[in-house]
């Protein structure tokens, strides 16, 4: 049975693409949004002359992120408060997670007595107010019951990925406070592009983009 799909040749498709005009300013903003959101300071600085986005707070935000990733939670909390005290005042879950990460770091360093005191003084009350936070606290405290964290059922809390998770949460909160998108727009647009290509492919045979990094088109059959 012959295919009912419309066939669009590569020359015809390229002519259609040539008729689509994208403003350079819009493309610049999209690229800058990715650099700013992901914290690529050097790239953003080089791109600054082609965008009107303020880059003055990127270094401060990256300093917070790096402090969390290195396990220095006291420094991270101080830096967040220096940026904007309302970030933690209005986001108790975020503050709890920063304090939880500090507890994890104390356990990692083997400071068990100090960790117990910290959990009781700083986290217990917050856990009593919220069942979800209480469960997270109980899981964290469970780390102290094992001499070897590798044998603990919640050993993932000791992984570097836990620091990264907390760092990403802080980064998103800071971006939101600065009226920036917490996630870059570019990955979302690429996902939409793939979805649109697949939907169009149900109706027509045309040269799809087969390499997003180079925008290389496939040949139509």
UniProtKB/TrEMBL annotation:
GO terms for biological process: proteasome-mediated ubiquitin-dependent protein catabolic process. SMART domains: CRA, CTLH, LisH. It holds the Pfam family CTLH. It comes from the Eukaryota. Residues 57-114 form the CTLH domain. GO terms for cellular component: cytoplasm; nucleus. This is CTLH domain-containing protein. It comes from Zostera marina (Eelgrass).
